[in-house]
Specification:
The chain is built from ten helices and eleven strands. It is of the alpha/beta class.
C-alpha cells in the first residue's frame, strides 16, 4: 500500500510555482495577486483562508484578505465582488463558502468575473471544463487529477466510482476522469444518497473517489484488493484520548480499507493540501494574461 502524499506533492508544486514567480520578478512582470472574501468569523473558514494567505507568501504571490461582517447585505457583498472584478491589480479571487443563510450563494458566484474565478465555480468555466476547453478547473478535482498524474496511476479503461454528486467535487471529478486526456479515459459511475446497492458497485471499482461528507462511510468490505482510494472528506470526531479532544477522519475507514488498497490518500495530508496548491496554480494561470 502506497500513501498518496498530498502534503509533499503540494509542497513540490509550490516550489515549482515559486520558480515561475522568480522568473516573472526577474523580467519585471506583474507578480500574481490572489484575493479572498470571507464573510463572518467561522473558525474553519478563517483557518482555511489564512492557510491560503500563508501559501501565497511562500510562493511569492501578493495576497489580499477582505473580511466582512456576517450581517452584510447581499447588495453590499455584490458591491465588494464588483470592486474585485474591476481591480486590475487582482489576478484572481475566491469567495469563501459557505455564506450566511440570508445570502444567495449562486447569485454571488455568478457575479464573479469568470476570468478571475480561480475556484473554477462560475458556469462559464464549468461549461468550458465540460467541453474540454482551456479554463480554470475546480481546485479540489484539479488537485486529485494532479495526484493521479504525479503518482502515475493508470486511469485509462479503468472502472472508477465517484461517491457524491456535489458541484464542487463529485460532478467535476466524474467529468474529468471520463474525458479524452492522458489521466482520463475511465469508465465512471457516479453514486449518491439515492443509489441502491452501493456496495455492489464499489466492490467492482479500480479507483474510488469518496466525496460524501460522511465520516468513515467507505469500509474494507466495500472494496476489492488493489483498489486506489481518493478520500476527499474530513470530519472532526470527538476523541478524549487525544490531546485536542478530537481526531480528524475522512469519508474512508482508513484502517480497514488501507489493508486492501494499492494507493490511498491519508486524512489529513492527502487531498486538502492539493486544493490550496491548485488554487495557486490557477492564479498563476490567470496572471499569465498580464505577462504574455
Amino acid at each position: 500500500m502506497i500513501l498518496l502524499d498530498g502534503k509533499q506533492t503540494a509542497a513540490d508544486i509550490k516550489d515549482e510555482i515559486a520558480l515561475e514567480v522568480d522568473k516573472i520578478r526577474l523580467n519585471k512582470g506583474k507578480i500574481p495577486h490572489l484575493a479572498a472574501i470571507i464573510v463572518g468569523a467561522d473558525g474553519a473558514s478563517l483557518t482555511y483562508v489564512n492557510s491560503k494567505v500563508k501559501a501565497c507568501k511562500k510562493v511569492g504571490f501578493n495576497s489580499s484578505l477582505i473580511e466582512l461582517p456576517i450581517d452584510i447585505t447581499e447588495e453590499q457583498l455584490l458591491h465588494e465582488v464588483h470592486l474585485l472584478n474591476k481591480d486590475v491589480t487582482i489576478d484572481g479571487y475566491i469567495v469563501q463558502l459557505p455564506l450566511p443563510d440570508h445570502i444567495d450563494e449562486d447569485l454571488i458566484l455568478m457575479a464573479v468575473d469568470p476570468n478571475k474565478d480561480v475556484d473554477g465555480f462560475h458556469p462559464t468555466n464549468v461549461g468550458k471544463m465540460t467541453l474540454e476547453l482551456p479554463t480554470f478547473l475546480p481546485a479540489t478535482p484539479y488537485g486529485i487529477m494532479e495526484l493521479l498524474e504525479r503518482y502515475k496511476i493508470e486511469t485509462s479503461g479503468k472502472d472508477v466510482v465517484v461517491i457524491g454528486r456535489s458541484h464542487i467535487v463529485g460532478r467535476p471529478m466524474s467529468i474529468l476522469l471520463s474525458q479524452k486526456r492522458e489521466y482520463g479515459n475511465a469508465t465512471v459511475t457516479l453514486v449518491h444518497s439515492r443509489t441502491k446497492n452501493i456496495k455492489e458497485i464499489t466492490k467492482k471499482a479500480d479507483i474510488i473517489v469518496v466525496a460524501l461528507g460522511v465520516a468513515e462511510f467507505l469500509t474494507g468490505d466495500m472494496v476489492k484488493k488493489g483498489v486506489t482510494i481518493i478520500d476527499v472528506g474530513i470530519t472532526r470526531l470527538e476523541d478524549k484520548t487525544r490531546k485536542r479532544g478530537y481526531r480528524l477522519v475522512g469519508d474512508v475507514h482508513f484502517e480497514s480499507v488501507s489493508k486492501k488498497a494499492s494507493y490511498i490518500t491519508p486524512v489529513p495530508g492527502g487531498v486538502g493540501p492539493m486544493t490550496i496548491a491548485m488554487l495557486l496554480k490557477n492564479t498563476l494561470l490567470a496572471n499569465r494574461k498580464f505577462n504574455s
